[in-house]
Design brief:
Strand content: 25-35%
Helix content: 10-25%
Number of strands: 19
Number of helices: 5
Order of helices and strands: EEEHHEEHEEEEEEEHEEEEHEEE
Largest sheet: 10 strands, mixed
CATH topology of the largest domain: Fumarylacetoacetate hydrolase, domain 2
CATH class of the largest domain: Alpha Beta
Distance between the termini: 37 Å
Structural class: alpha+beta
Shape: globular
Length: about 280
């Protein structure tokens, strides 16, 4: 099952892509894709509801509406740094012995095709195509062999980063990761039964030039390991997002380093999860 949300910011409606590839409005189901939905068995209830009502749901043309993030604002966005072998090499950093964790503000969350706002004072806004994991039920002290049972699904994420804020200004990474519009998510959440996260092609283009082109099989820590590991340190709530790291090809690692400017376009995709596109604009 593929979930999406559409409409103006703050007023999105829930939708589903049916098995015949039709995009439909499921507002009549009566629930948005939030913590209560995932934690209350919403996916199973929605699937059962669609069997009776799917054919009568209003159609949605995804090319003519704004797509929002496929989930409501989660309690937290947890990111994994340096989780691709080739990316660690290009940044001249050692292969981590344990997952590197940091947070990204939930106010950074936007739709997959919304504009990227270059922050005030930015010198080094960078791109990062990533596989995002959406948690499906409360998880704490989860064993690795059971970790996927706690996953609702997966989505495409661009973990935008301002490298000067992140690396040159002292402190932790979070302030280089949390600017408004720095977390475009979607276009859809694809449920875990449809995706093998261990072998997915992922790519990113800047101004039509391919700069990232890899596969999740280059991950240092796989999805079950990441979910289990994080759950040892904090409770994961339904709807929480875990972004699992980016492959080589970020602007920081290019020679010379290259960063985004107003007018640039970024396109990205992950096999089975769709594509997104952002245009860089000046911040308000």
């Amino acid at each position: 099952m593929k979930l999406f949300r559409f409409g103006s910011p703050g007023s999105e409606k829930p939708g589903v892509v049916l098995s015949d590839s039709a995009w439909v409005d499921v507002s009549a189901f009566g629930a948005d894709y939030d913590e209560a939905f995932f934690g209350g068995g919403g996916l199973a209830k929605l699937e059962a509801w669609l069997k009776q009502n799917g054919s009568s749901c209003p159609k949605v043309d995804p090319s003519k509406v704004r797509l929002g993030a496929p989930i409501c604002r989660p309690s937290k966005i947890i990111c994994v740094g340096l989780n691709y072998r080739a990316h660690a090499v290009e940044t001249n950093m050692p292969i981590p012995a344990e997952p590197v964790l940091f947070f990204k503000s939930t106010t950074a969350l936007v739709g997959p095709n919304d504009d990227l706002k270059i922050p005030r004072g930015s010198e080094k806004t960078d791109w990062e195509v990533e596989l995002a994991v959406i948690i499906g039920k409360t998880a704490r002290y989860v064993e690795k062999n059971e970790a996927l049972e706690y996953v609702a699904g997966y989505a495409l994420h661009n973990d935008y980063s301002e490298r000067a804020f992140q690396l040159d200004r002292g402190g932790q990474w979070v302030k280089g990761k949390s600017c408004d519009t720095f977390a475009p998510l979607g276009p859809t959440l694809v449920t875990r039964d449809e995706i093998d996260p261990s072998n997915l092609k992922l790519w990113l283009k800047v101004n039509d030039k391919l700069v990232q082109n890899s596969n999740t099989d280059d991950m240092i820590f796989d999805v079950p390991t990441i979910v289990s590991y994080i759950s040892q340190f904090m409770t994961l709530l339904p709807g929480d997002v875990i972004s699992t790291g980016t492959p080589q090809g970020v602007g920081l690692g290019l020679k010379p380093p290259t960063f985004l400017k107003v007018g640039d376009t970024v396109e990205l995709g992950i096999e089975g999860l769709g594509t997104s596109r952002q245009r860089a604009v000046a911040s308000d």
